[in-house]
Amino acid sequence: MANTNKVIKGRDLMLFNDEGKSFAFATNHTFTINAETAEISSKDHGIWGGSEVTKFTWEISTENLYTPTNFSSLFDLMLAGTPMKVRFGLKAENDNTKNVADGDYENWTSGNEYYEGDAVITSLVANAANGDNATYTATFTGAGKIVRTTVQQGGE
Questions:
Q1: Quick one: which of 12, 155, 33, 137 has its CA closest to 75?
Q2: Long-range contacts, stretch 6-10, CB < 8 angstroms, 24+ apart
């Protein structure tokens, strides 16, 4: 029987745009989903409190090496304030001897299973420390639900 609990390497789990293309030169991604709750305690709960979920929120952040094209693109999207579709999941390419910086791929592409939803950019931070590579961080905050998506081989 195959092991379905394979540990995933961080390098393979990425953020993608609506076309399934990665944001270039990423160094870290964080996906957070939260549940807000309301107190529903009653006399029947005894000494234990009670809660129910009233709302879910989510966000995905990306940390990347700075390139003028990538940062400017995100800057324009943020100021437009328009939700964009994002995906969070495994990349499709599995050959770790190839890399985007060498031109092996234009961008990594998303695999067939991912979490997808509309989000707005709520934070964009450029960091230019003396002696280090310039970086930027962008935070995408959900503008509605996020869903787990599986695409059948051969199309979307």
A1: 137
A2: 8/90
The pLDDT tens digits for 55-74 are 999 999 999 999 999 999 99
Domains of the chain, earliest start first:
10-150 (2.30.110.20)
Q: Is the pLDDT at 146 greater than 60, yes or no? A: yes
Report CA 84 to chain centroid distance, whole Å.
Answer: 12
Check residue 102 and give its pLDDT.
75
Length, in residues, of the chain: 156
Give how far the C-alpha of residue 123 lies from the chain's centroid of Cα atoms, to the nearest Å.
14
Cα–Cα distance for residue pair 74/69, rounded to 1 Å: 9
Distance CA 143, CA 141 (A): 6
| 3 state SS of 81 | coil
pLDDT tens string 9-48: 898 899 999 888 888 889 999 999 999 999 999 988 889 9
Dist CA 114 CA 148 (whole Å): 6
